[in-house]
């Protein structure tokens, strides 16, 4: 029993103590409260009650009802909406109700009706608004009651948009509110810019209408409006009166710091409510906790060197999240944004911070740390926790919850920062360290031994020294630039490799960081090694019903081609041509053909290791001798290989001139035969030397010379012969002496 009594006394003491805090220093209000039914004054931004007396007593709102009428209209209709005045709108205004003398059938825009209703307290305008916004007054009143509950004005009920009560008819007897509810409703309304503007007007002038030919001016019913006091000025909002309600005054006032108070006074007469309003506002603006209340719901500001950032931070219990781009601009921190994986890189004085949107960890100079809050994007701005940024770069953060400020020193407090010249690499947002890097021709090359761990063994790669060609799994492709060999190690160009594997690479110019990003590794199927060695084709257009013969000089055609494009395989004395298309082949006469004589030489050179790759790995050529020959028709080049253990090694390259399109060099795989010699006639007063046969009447030999050995035609590097393969005179001598019979000749 004693415990129960003790507990009750404790509760009573707490109640008395809390009351003494709420109503402290109220002596100055005592006289002003005489003849006041109920009143309240609140700090607008927080809704904190600074003083209240009978604030929850049920009273009639009178014309302060029109505050809610304005809210519903402003939130549901265009200010330029034209309203039509009805007979009932001008009739149902109460006994002696204030009005704007509207006439049935008159047209008035909503904006003017709102001004007349809020400034001149015109009852007819309130009715017109309610009838026109939704098409009927009943729906409008339903919305008023719905909005009151939404705002939290739970003791408020509306039966009409004007403020009529039981004195005007039993149907209005449930029109009721409280001083506290009116404060809540007004606090909501003052956040609507159009409402705030209208209730601050001393007078309002409405233009002529279809029923009023002249403009009309009305005075505000609030005599305290715009009155200036020592610490504040009254900025609005609404008066009200009925016999049952008495005088009602809702006011808003603001001091020079931008703090706004809202007061509601319900009393017996005008002087009472005006005097009480002034006393409430004086008391409220002198309240010792006003600053704290006014800042409670206001956003924080970031201050750097006395300057305020334009974007507000987000302050949580254990972190400050700030718009990082603006912070970096103020603190001169280098920033890079990698959009592919939403990465933020910060750098200053050789120190790095690496964060990702949506991830609750970061990397500080390559070391992983946990974040109090994941970075995020809001309204196109990236917000990151400031704490690791400040700690890394040496800035101090001071958060003042009372003044709602986050202050960052404009200069770092850490001394002797070590400056690193190294470049940081990141792969899929994680720092990656390459053990060995070479910079060659301004390109980054990495040791191939680093690649497996970089790609996390998701794909197998095989490289060749000094070559663009690589194997990705079993697929052969090629890079834009070749690998380089140093100290028996192969280095691959990072950007070129990434491009072939579907890895996107970004250079962070501000933070000097390299970022690699991939979702899935993939082979660039647009690149095939065959692109490096395109086959040479000679094409012609044939006439309709071109005959094909089984052999040269045959009397009877074996088939016919209807016409179109064909490939020229070889010729015989410019008179007969062996041709083929996708389905048939055979010999035909020159008169049926129109041969394309254009030749475009491929200027892109193969590196020696690439040439060897094609012979050994791609074409898989073999030869019974220790020599092998590959004639590259597109490059007009003879490649000569010698056997080296189990592969072919490129030992000599000779420029050449092969057959013109009207007499093309035959393609395929052949062998050097016994038909060779020193001199062979090649036209009028022209000879070739050191001829070596490889198929029928096709030979390797020198360029054209005169009988005395002087050069007659030294054309090389393009198609020029009648089908044989010309080469420089000195090379032909070497070729004739060194290339043995049965050596494989591959022509493509």
Automatic annotation (TrEMBL):
Alphabetical list of CDD domains matching this protein: YkuD_like
GO molecular function: serine-type D-Ala-D-Ala carboxypeptidase activity; transferase activity
Catalytic machinery residues: 63, 66, 121, 701, 724
Keyword list, A-Z: Carboxypeptidase, Cell shape, Cell wall biogenesis/degradation, Hydrolase, Peptidoglycan synthesis, Protease, Signal, Transferase
Gene3D superfamilies per the UniProt record, alphabetical: Copper amine oxidase-like, N-terminal domain, DD-peptidase/beta-lactamase superfamily, L,D-transpeptidase catalytic domain-like
Residue stretches making up the L,D-TPase catalytic domain: 627-748
Annotated binding of substrate, by residue: 238
Family of this protein: Belongs to the peptidase S11 family.
Name listed for the protein in its UniProt record: D-alanyl-D-alanine carboxypeptidase
